[in-house]
Design goal:
Elements (H helix, E strand, L loop, with lengths): L20 H23 L9 H6 L6 H18 L11 H11 L2 H14 L4 E7 L5 E7 L14 E7 L6 H4 L3 H8 L5 H11 L1
Antiparallel strand pairs: 1-2, 1-3
Helix pairs in contact: 1-3, 4-5
Length: about 200
């Protein structure tokens, strides 16, 4: 069963003014669609065909550049769309809020750590909040389309929040002002979805 480009759970313009409609449309229909097509081509006829994307990435041979880049791109963007919402923003509650407070001291300290990971990622990449078995959360960043599911990459654990800091994710609207884009992202985070992922993976 080939991987399919997931539909967005909202309209392309739904995250404005924080993320503009044109960027969302290009990002989804060109970039994510491209990763999806190339991933299917890279695994066709191999023993990876028919596996879940999580199984592919956790058992990945990092020297397999086609699957590393396109499998990462497919997974990362699939998560990215899910953890944003037109009704996003605010702060997490419940178990996730408690885990963030325990790990970072406060939500504001987490926000600083996550923003620094995103701003400090040289070139293209992602910032992540990951959950480990037992419920501990950590922040890290990865280059290109790598992600923490891949062996020996980033903070390990399961990503429950990710921010794309490739220029194609923000350049039309923010040009070279990556910190402004990072700050805007906090206005669209769907903390209900992130909390759900935390509960499923802790």
């Amino acid at each position: 069963m080939a991987f399919e480009l997931p539909k967005l759970p909202y309209a392309y313009d739904a995250l404005e003014p924080h993320i503009d409609a044109r960027t969302m449309e290009i990002h989804h229909t060109k970039h994510h669609a491209g990763y999806t097509t190339k991933l299917n081509g890279a695994i066709e006829g191999t023993d990876l065909e028919g596996k879940s994307i999580e199984d592919i990435l956790t058992g990945l041979d990092l020297s397999n550049a086609a699957v590393r880049n396109n499998g990462g791109g497919f997974y990362n963007h699939s998560l990215f769309w899910e953890i944003m919402s037109p009704n996003g923003g605010g702060t997490p509650t419940g178990e996730l809020a408690a885990a963030i407070d325990k790990a970072f001291g406060s939500f504001d300290a987490f926000k600083d750590a996550f923003s620094n990971a995103a701003a400090g990622q040289f070139g293209s990449g992602w910032a992540w909040l990951c959950v480990h078995e037992g419920g501990e959360v950590k922040v890290c960043s990865t280059a290109n389309q790598d992600n923490p599911l891949m062996p020996g990459i980033g903070c390990g654990g399961t990503p429950i929040l990710g921010l794309d800091v490739w220029e194609h994710a923000y350049y039309l609207n923010y040009q070279n002002k990556r910190p402004d884009y990072i700050n805007a992202f906090f206005s669209v985070i769907n903390w209900d979805k992130v909390s759900e992922l935390y509960a499923e993976n802790k």
